[in-house]
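Marked as duplicate of an earlier ticket. Keeping the data here for the record.
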Amino acid sequence: MKKCALAVAAVLLLTALEPRSVTAQVTFVPGVKGALSISTLSAPGESWLSLRRPTLGAFLSVNLDKTVSIQPEVFWLTKGGASETFYFDQMGAPIEMRHQWSLSYIHLPVLVKLHPIPKGTFLPVIFAGPAFDLLLRAVRADFYNGQLVSDTNITDAYKSTG
């Protein structure tokens, strides 16, 4: 991670020091992003289900010239997973137990956006850069036959940054 951050810092420094004509102008392009986050926890000997949650965010593309941009972003992101157990009670009634872990983060990537071919029909874009995560809240929820029976804040059990 440190090597990646150093490489991005070097590219940013070289880009900032690149000679430009007086007419070259830096432009700013704001935007929003949305997606579906699908994450799965894993542990030896256990079967886990994916947790699907929306991801929302915003970015600001700072176009230094036609080929290089710097794009800081901010997202609200939820990661986690669930485990389920099915069994029958003494009367033969089905019982479903579900344990779900949800970890909510603020995700902060800073990307260098390169346009290797600035003109034409096909315009590839290369993104590279470090990201930083800040844990907001971690919750373990337990469900019994689809009904929530406990909702425990487990934020202290996880690192607050990543």
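See parent ticket for discussion. DSSP finds one helix and seven strands in the chain.
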